[in-house]
Amino acid sequence: MRVLQTINSMDPRLGGPSSCTLDMMQGLFDIGANVNLLTVKCKEPEIHNLGEGSSWLKEVDNDCWSPLGLSMNLKQELSKSNYDVYHANTLWLYQSHLTSKVARLKKKPYIISPHGMLYPNALQIKRWKKVPMLKLWFNRDVMQATCLHATCQQEAEYCRQFGYKGPIAVIPNAVVFPKGVEIKKEIYRDQKDRRQIGFLGRLHPIKKVENVIYAIDKLSDVLRGQISFQIIGKYDDRYEQWLKEEVRRLHLEDIVEFVGFVSGMAKYNNLKKLSALFVPSESENFGMIVPESLICGTPVYASLGTPWGELNDCNAGWWKDNSPETVAEVIKDVLSKSDIELLEMGINGRHLIEEKYEQHKVAADMLKLYEWICYGGVKPEFVYNW
């Protein structure tokens, strides 16, 4: 059985789908799956794709044009391909449509991983562009897919709400435990003896970072003096500038710091310094930053728009609504807990990721899905036809 995954880009600057696709592909390779990933090279020669040099990665020269990423090189490579199962990552780009179309022409089964792009909030972003694209390509691509892959139950429900009636496999993103990243042994305080809380991710309006800023503003002077808030990440310059203006308007410059983009070990070092990570997003798919934080032993507050109810179940954080009032209560709870209590929450979180989301355990489920699609047999327990 030969499987081809595709993705529009593995550019390391994009994060999200490209980084979790890397982890899944490497996990599949490690357990002996015969899987390739097809993508285009980065346009800038000094930037290298994630996974470059891996035997499972197939790259074509980047001839993409238009916002849809139209590529004759991708088309030619897919047209001459011969795989038993095709698997497209993301939507709204030519690569995803082309993978679906080629699979249909070759009469082969195909899977689509929307990576959160069928969430109601995501569908509203640039709706003027997505509606005609749905009519032109993607309604057919999605509805005729052999199976959709969702990373959580919530995403599966949104896929069904979109109108897809076929089987949906709920397989989380594979989580890698990086070498050298150990669980923290103490709670960090800055030079002013303050605990740090933080946000890490793309700066985009859907992330609702301002709700943490407004929550800090609601705290008493005494409590505000006990914390600093690290905003770690880049993406939307206009949104970042607006956040900075809000910080100035509320006179919180001595509490809120904009750190910028970090990656690699610097990312994990920043996460270790936090007493808690805050993920107040309006909606979020799997959210890789949550397990990455838990790997470090840092508890996580995540909004109800994320699929992380397990944070409450195993006492590894807080899963609550994202109103500034609720976020302020969570900050108070973080400040009220002893160092030992926070470290114990971190241990609980690390155990959760080890037991349920470790890279090779997740990759084994994806391989089981491919085998079921290709050969039939007993339906895997994570595949739903409701």
Q: Assign the CATH architecture of the largest domain.
A: 3-Layer(aba) Sandwich
- Low-confidence sequence ranges: none
Per DSSP, the total helix count is 15
N-C termini distance: 28 Å
Strand order of the largest sheet: 3-2-1-4-5-6-7-14
Elements, N to C (H/E):
EHEEHEHEHHEHEEHHEHEHEHEHEHHHE
Q: Which structural class do you get from the secondary structure elements?
A: alpha/beta
The helical percent reads: 40-55%
Folded structure, characterized:
It is a single chain. Helix 1 packs across helix 15, helix 2 runs parallel beside helix 3 and helix 7 packs across helix 13. The relative contact order is 0.13. Strand 11, helix 11 and strand 12 form a beta-alpha-beta unit. The strands form two sheets. The chain has an eight-stranded mixed beta sheet with strand order 3-2-1-4-5-6-7-14, sandwiched between helices. A six-stranded parallel beta sheet has the order 10-9-8-11-12-13, with helices on both faces. By secondary structure, it is of the alpha/beta class. The protein is 42% helix and 16% strand. It starts with a strand and ends with a strand. It has two domains: 199 residues, 3-Layer(aba) Sandwich (Rossmann fold), CATH 3.40.50; 162 residues, Rossmann fold (3-Layer(aba) Sandwich), CATH 3.40.50.
Question: Quick summary of this structure?
Answer:
With 386 residues, the protein is an alpha/beta fold. It is 42% helix and 16% strand.
Structural key phrases:
single chain; 14 strands; alpha/beta; 386 residues; Rossmann fold
